[in-house]
Amino acid sequence: MRLRFAPSPTGALHIGGARTALYNWLLARGQGGALMLRIEDTDRERSTPENVEQILDALRWLELDWDEGPVLQSARGERHRAALDELLASGAAYRSSATADDVRAYKDAHGAERGFRGEAEESGAVRLRVPGAGETVVHDVIRGDTTFAHVHLDDPVIARADGSVLYNFAVAVDDLDAQITHVVRGEDHLSNTPKQLLVFTALGARPPVYAHLPLLHGPDGKKLSKRHGAASVSELRDAGYLPEAVRNYIALLGWGMDDETTLIATADLQREFRLERVSKSSAVFDERKLRWMNGRYLKELPLEELTARLEALTGRTGLRGAVEIAREKIQTLSEFWPLVGFVFDGPVEDPAAWSKIMEAEGAREGLVAAREAIAAAEPWNDSTVEAALREVVETRGVKPKLVFQPVRVAIAGGTVSPGIFESVALLGRDETLARVDMALARM
């Protein structure tokens, strides 16, 4: 089995493209095949080295490797022209100066459903001859057979007058030369497939097996875009998702190992993935579900590994204690620092939290009592801190939040933090008392 992932470097690698890359990778790795990376950079205006590097970077982050490439389609111009000359010499293709107006005139004369047929000329663009009768059938592993009657197909332009070939011709020649056995791509390419099959036929070659993946939609049923949240791999990375969680989630967008299993290790994905189980219905990308799955992956990471990832992300060291008390509250890596940054950088400024909590009736008295209890806690750990603060609640006969929240705002600046007892213990007695004293001085 030989597969290829062939993105166009016209922007960031979108989630749909990442799923296509993943499915090809899973097939290659799970069935002893090979995966080629081909960069289809024929759009010279939009294809840039920066965009190529974005794609490579996204694939590396997803930990999807390849066996051959990256091959630049633009570097294969000589081979494309040789294949074009072969078809011109055999009569399978011809030059034509027909314009869009000529095509419309032809259809006006022969019927709107009739495919355009031109006459060979000395110069002009190159068109591929479509047989006058018969049909081209796309045999698709996922979607079944789709039939295209030749009578309805225009003779497609496969090269411009200057000799530069067009996409469908270049793709077919590239797949032929690379001996690609399976083409797995989005269903937006389905309309291109009969044109590519005609090129294979004209070259006397056997075509690969095709599988066209359903498009991705947002929860509202519309085509996935930025309005649904993250739309590219780089955005998911920057939002703090784990590559293994992203692989797991996007693998399930149109495929499943069974009807119930959701958390699937990459090794199991490689072993179980089959094209025959891919649905032909549109799949829904829901970032809320990805966040849930990512949270599960975060909780299952060993503490030392999670700490290493967060230290790499934040550029800080010595985060183990903070990671230990925060890991149950975060669903992405990017949520970590807003939750625990106060431990290292001091309380944040949150006027709304101060007004709501610290200016409430009884807040100062509760914080004074909490300070005395914290100062006397022995030995210093989260259990003794909890016991001390709960005793204040019981002695004062108030709700816990009337004691705990003033302490939280005093040490963190706002009402968001890991568990209050764990936060106080991690901060240390001296630093906690210093921050409480600063808060009391403001009240």
Strand order of the largest sheet: 1-2-3
Proportion of residues in helical segments: 40-55%
The top-level CATH class of the domain at 351-442 is: Mainly Alpha
Q: Which structural class do you get from the secondary structure elements?
A: mainly alpha
The backbone outline, from C-alpha atoms, is: elongated
Q: Count the strands?
A: 12
Alpha plus pi helix count: 19
Which radius of gyration do the C-alpha atoms yield?
A: 31 Å
What this model shows, in words?
The chain has helices at 15-30, 49-62, 77-90, 100-110, 167-177, 193-202, 233-238, 243-251, 266-272, 287-300, 303-314, 320-326, 336-345, 351-358, 363-376, 382-396, 401-412, 420-427, 429-442, and strands at 2-5, 34-39, 68-72, 93-96, 125-128, 135-140, 144-149, 157-159, 182-186, 209-213, 216-217, 283-284. 48% of the residues lie in helices and 12% in strands. By secondary structure, it is mainly alpha-helical. Strand 1 (2-5), helix 1 and strand 2 (34-39) form a beta-alpha-beta unit. Among the domains are: 79-159, Glutamyl-tRNA Synthetase, Domain 3 (Glutamyl-tRNA Synthetase, domain 3), CATH 3.90.800.10; 303-345, no CATH class; 351-442, Arc Repressor Mutant, subunit A, CATH 1.10.10.350. The longest helix has 16 residues, at 15-30. It has a three-stranded parallel beta sheet. Strands 4-5-8 form a three-stranded antiparallel beta sheet. Helix 14 (351-358) packs antiparallel against helix 17 and helix 15 packs across helix 16. It is elongated and about 100 Å long.
